[in-house]
Design a protein that fits this description.
Order of helices and strands: HHHHHHHHHHH
Low-confidence stretches: none
Oligomer: single chain
Helix content: 40-55%
Structural class: mainly alpha
CATH superfamily of the largest domain: Hypothetical protein, domain 2
Strand content: under 5%
Shape: globular
CATH class of the largest domain: Mainly Alpha
Number of helices: 11
Mean pLDDT: 95
Distance between the termini: 17 Å
Largest sheet: none
CATH architecture of the largest domain: Orthogonal Bundle
Length: 234
DNA sequence: AACCAGGACGTGA
DNA sequence: TCACGTCATGGT
């Protein structure tokens, strides 16, 4: 086992299952060992269970770009007042009620951009006719970059795509396992080549990295109080 | 008051 | 390819 496996084990043992991707519509009636917390579903990996939950993940992935999840949650709850999480309903609502739509997603920030991005991804989603898109195809949607594409594929479609985010770069460059300015794809490939895990492990790993990042890599100087992973530092 | 938040895009070198 | 500015609200 190399560092990537050992760090995962360490994080999982310390923080337990994260229950990503969260859903405001998650009813909590599914059996889990650790219960359901505010839309999270730790230990339940049969998510999403239908196209509504899938589409909620997709629009949530757009809304959470450079934005905290609590803000996204407010936006999703606001939106849900007007529409079901359905691509056609979203498109219809966006055409007839642009103002209300933007007001609803305002908490997530960048509401003009994200308004257009949500329309783009909705039109793309409808064009799929229920098929799973390739990574390249999703990346062609304006508003979907590397991280959003991988998030949708990993959490929405259950594909083994490792998600790299700002915390991943901070933590693993602090530990000396990657370089500060390594590209997204280089880091992604590094994880996918060195980490031995299945889809649910990929899902947990990224979520655990975010959790750990929030605790020790949000305030500068990053990582100085990271006792958990300190012994992995090169 | 400054900085960060589960980034992406357009631009100019 | 890559560094930099822009997009925007909300929390600390």
């Amino acid at each position: 086992m190399d560092d990537y496996d050992l760090i995962y084990k360490k994080l999982l043992k310390n923080y337990s299952n994260q229950g990503w991707w969260p859903s405001i519509g998650f009813d909590g009636k599914n059996p889990t060992k650790t219960g359901v917390i505010k839309g999270y579903h730790p230990g339940f990996y049969e998510f999403p269970r239908n196209t509504t939950e899938l589409f909620e993940i997709i629009i949530g992935a757009i809304l959470t770009q450079n934005t905290s999840w609590t803000s996204v949650e407010k936006s999703l709850i606001n939106l849900r007042e007007y529409i079901n999480f359905d691509a056609q309903e979203l498109l219809d609502f966006s055409k007839n009620n642009e103002n209300k739509f933007k007001e609803a997603i305002k908490p997530a920030g960048y509401y003009n951009q994200k308004f257009n991005y949500l329309i783009n991804i909705s039109e793309f989603y409808l064009s799929l006719n229920g098929n799973t898109p390739s990574r390249e195809e999703i990346l062609n949607v304006k508003g979907v970059g590397n991280e959003t594409a991988d998030s949708i594929l990993l959490y929405g479609y259950g594909e083994k795509q490792f998600v790299i985010d700002a915390y991943t770069k901070r933590i693993f460059s602090y530990l000396g396992l990657i370089k500060e300015k390594d590209s997204y794809l280089k880091i992604k490939n590094l994880f996918e080549e060195n980490f031995n895990g299945d889809v649910k492990d990929f899902q947990e790993y990224h979520a655990l990295i975010v959790e750990h990042g929030k605790r020790h890599y949000s305030k500068k100087p990053y990582g100085v109080n990271d006792k958990l992973l300190n012994n992995f530092k090169k």
